[in-house]
Amino acid sequence: MLGSTADSLFWMFRYIERVENTLCMIESGFQLYLLSSNNLYNEWDAILRTNSIRHHFLKKNNSLESLNIINFMFKEPKNLNNILLLIGKARENARRSRVSITSEVWEAINTCWLYLNEELNKKINENKIQIIIKNTREKIALIFGFLERSMLKNEILNFCYLGTFIERFDNTARILNTRYYLLMDEKKFRFEGYDNFQLEMILRSISSYRSFMWKNQNEIKANKVSYFLISDKDMPKSLMFCISETIKNLKSIHKKNFTKNNSYLNALSIQKRIKQKHTNFNNYSFLNGLFKINMTLAANIEDEFNFQ
Amino acid sequence: MTYITKKYDEAFINKNSVRTNYKKLINWFKNQDNNELRKKNSDAMKFFQNTGVSFKVYSNDDKENLIPFDIIPRIINYKEWDKIVKGITQRVLAINFFLNDIYSEQEIIKHEVIPVDLIQNNPAFLKQMIGFIPPKKTYNHISGIDLIKTNSDNFYVLEDNVRVPSGASYMIENRDTMIKLFPDLISRYKVFENRNYTKNLSEILKKSSPKKTNRNPNIVLLTPGIYNSAFFEHAFLADKLGIELVEGKDLRVINKYLNMKTIEGWKRVDVIYRRIDDIFLDPLSFKEDSFLGVPGLMEVYRNKNVTIANAPGTGISDDKSIYSYIPDIIKFYLGQKPILKNVKTFKCRVKDELKYVLDNLNKLVVKEVHGSGGYGMLVGPLASKTEISKFKNKIIKNPYNYIAQPTLSLSTCPIYTKKGLTSRHVDLRCFALLAKEKVTVTTGGLTRVALKKDSLVVNSSQGGGTKDTWILSS
User: Fold this and answer.
1) pLDDT digits (tens, 9 = 90+) for B370-427
2) Is the pLDDT of residue B110 over 90?
3) What's the pLDDT tens digit per position in B279-338?
4) What is the CATH number of domain B344-406?
5) For chain B, what is the total number of helices (H) and then of strands (E)?
6) How far off is chain A from B61, nearest CA to CA, in Å?
7) What pLDDT was estimated at residue B220?
8) Domain end residue (candidates: A93, A117, A150)
């Protein structure tokens, strides 16, 4: 396989995953807006910081007005992580690696791009936001469905999954990083007005509220949320799950030689750190450390597999 | 709506009388529900949109355009087709002999069949190829021959495209679409398969490999990248051929061989099916600032360590001024009369012919010798006085750059519109493959259709569309 093809596959799925993650955040913010929640501004503030776009947004806007933020996240050209741009980049990479993916996967990506272009190039109507999010998430599910069902189980697929899980790890780590103070041990830190609502919002922002409640008998506690997001090996958005999948895919590509590669060694060190952490998950330096090694890991992959 | 036939129409003799080839089709059409057809017509476009069958027109925006597809097939019977195959085979072989000759002994010039300046002063003549015999003595592995019909008897050759002809992917997609949409119609006829084009292409590329071992050669398709107008076709063909789609940046010359950068390191390349022009192939030999090619590629090629298909320098033979000599070329190398006729061509480089052209611009189609895609041409009968006078100055300034042809009454075929069938002008691009002096012409081709009423410009870059082309086996 060409190094440049691996590059395209990897980034195609980083961008697709980023679209999905951004949609989840828009949805959680939009729900609060509909309920006219008191926490609305804090929530948008956290979302913008998680995406590293708060500064850019406030350059153009004086206040955290919900619909402006949603518009900004969907299609503002100044926001380099806007949904329209991300899906365009995903499709561009899909075109570059068109020979490596099946026509089913290609068509699923292409139709998702066509759909978003049609919807987002019109004025975004308040009544349509939820429909757009729902339809897009369904189209993304179709991409992953065809990826699983129509592709050969070889290194092409491994690179698609590497992109997916590196990006997902990054996203969960960012969310934890932005809101680590909420997740500190309740006994030591109690904020005035602090309630479970914000913890709930963290879960909602990664679309994992229901599964958390199901696993934890409808009881929200900071340390349980932390465990769920960081160490729970069953939770598809947890750091532990993401890094385990990354390791699995790296092993598969490298075949026998994986033990010598920096990407594998770094992935293993992330997994080890998470395993060793049993309490006080939310120490800022711990999270920040994981976040940084994941970035190094991504760079290792680009280097080891001759990306451009 | 009444079907009006002003010129030679391939389906209708007149509004009440249908030609044999089209009888089943027209009967079938009469029994179709128009709403249903309308839906299928839009399904076809949706199918192209979703699968990303697109064509980028060079412009300032990033928009990708769909080539309009017409659901009414063009039908050609076997007798007509047989003549086309024989004619194309003859041309393709003659062109290959011609290319081998002008880059070596130049017998054709010595025998004064072709004037020397037509070769020497031609930018498409590559001095780097002089004295070099390409692997397997093959230059034009892949040709796209454009034909037009003016009456019931004759197809004429309009152009021999041998630089980087495109369109085969649309030919295949058109067939796929027709089978999906109208299985009941296609099964009424005995239509030849055309989708074996990619299998044949794969075979001739394998045969062209300079390598002597039995191991399968490593073939790649070299594309300028995703922003190229024909990128869809590059990806489509690489996919069907099961080969890597590479850009210049994926390739490097290492130890006299060409290699591609894989996830496991460098891997040797034996054959390049290139879809970039000569001048971009190697910045060390041609255009210095080109990023599309590979530095040192020509040296590897000259050492016969890689095959480039089509060979560099092939372009000279589809130059429009050489075109007018193709009948002489056929005669010189094969000792045969051309089976397919050329369109009468006036060479502006010849004094008398220039005078005729300048005096009759309003009747002629004038083309740039190196132009393509319908750009840089003047369609006299449709041009305004100002346009004609501007063009006249251009010709006078550089007559060597132009040829002229009479405005031909291109045949028409029916296309589908919401109001029913209507006639439009068509041409036909046929695809021929050459290996070891054997020519394979794909049974079918790409019919291009001018969608605007009375328009003669069928190029997709100028708003033309395409339709499936059925060659009947009996």
Assistant:
1) 766 566 788 888 889 999 999 999 999 999 889 999 988 889 999 998 888 999 999 9
2) yes
3) 999 999 888 888 899 999 999 999 999 999 999 999 999 888 899 999 999 999 999 999
4) 3.30.1490.270
5) 14, 22
6) 14
7) 98
8) A150
Query: B52 vs A6: CB contact, 8 Å cut-off?
Result: no
B262 at A interface, C-beta within 8 A:
yes
- Between CA B121 and CA B114 the distance in angstroms is 13
Q: How far is CA B201 from CA A300, B206, B275, in A?
A: 39, 9, 14
Phi, psi of A229 (to 5 degrees): -80, -25
**How much is the pLDDT for A72?**
96
Q: How far apart are CA B64 and CA A255, in angstroms?
A: 40
- Among residues A150, A172, A192, the one where a domain terminates is A150
Q: What token pair was written down for A10?
A: 């990897």
Output the DSSP codes for B285-305: TS-TT-SSS-TTHHHHHHTTS
Same domain, A179 and A301: yes
**Minimal CA separation from B41 to chain A, in Å:** 19
Query: With an 8 Å Cβ cutoff, is B246 touching chain A?
Result: yes
Q: Give per-residue pLDDT as tens, B92-107.
A: 999 999 999 999 999 9
Q: Indicate the SS3 state at residue A36.
A: coil
Is B154 in the A-facing interface, judged by CB distances under 8 Å?
no
CA distance B178 to B47: 11
- Number of folded domains that form chain A: 2
Task: Give the global pTM.
Answer: 0.90
Domain ranges in chain B are 12-210+306-339+408-471, 344-406
Q: Do A3 and B261 touch (CB under 8 A)?
A: yes
CA dist., res. B389 & res. A228, Å (int) = 78
Is it the case that residue A190 has pLDDT exceeding 60?
Answer: no
Q: What's the CA gap between B84 and B157, in Å, rounded? A: 10
**Which neighbouring-strand residues pair with B155?**
B149
| Count of positions (residues) in chain B | 474
Q: Are A306 and A157 found together in one domain? A: yes
Q: In sequence order, which ranges of chain A are alpha helices (DSSP H)? A: 3-34, 40-50, 54-60, 66-75, 83-96, 103-120, 129-150, 155-178, 196-205, 209-215, 222-230, 239-254, 262-276, 284-304
pLDDT digit string, tens, across residues B421-474 = 999 999 999 999 999 999 999 999 999 998 887 777 777 666 789 999 999 987
Q: How far apart are CA B471 and CA B83, in angstroms?
A: 12
H or E stretch at B420:
strand B420-435
A29-to-A18, A23, A24, A72, B103 alpha-carbon distances in Å: 17, 10, 9, 13, 70
Higher pLDDT, B462 or B37: B37
Q: Is A3 on the interface with B (CB under 8 A)?
A: yes
Residue A155 with chain B: CB contacts under 8 Å: 263
Residues 6+ positions from A60 with CB-CB distance below 8 Å: A72, A76, A78
Compute chain A's Rg from CA coordinates: 19
Read out DSSP for B425-441? EEEEEEEEEEETTEEEE
Closest CA to B41 of B420, B412, B413, B471: B420
Angle, CA A223 vertex, CA A218 and CA A229 arms, to 5°:
80
Mean pLDDT of A231-254: 94
Quote the pLDDT of residue B46: 86
A119/B198 Cα distance (integer angstroms): 38
- Spatial separation of the C-alpha atoms in residues B158 and B363, rounded to whole Å: 18
Cβ-based contacts of A113 with chain B (< 8 Å): none
Q: Which residues of B touch A114 (CB under 8 A)?
A: 49-50
Nearest to A6 among B231, B238, B263 (CB): B263
**Are A112 and A183 in the same domain?**
no
Residues A168 and A302 in one domain: yes
CA pair distance A12, A22, nearest whole angstrom: 15
- Domain membership of residue A212 as a residue range: 153-308
Q: Chain A closest CA to B247's CA: distance in Å?
A: 9
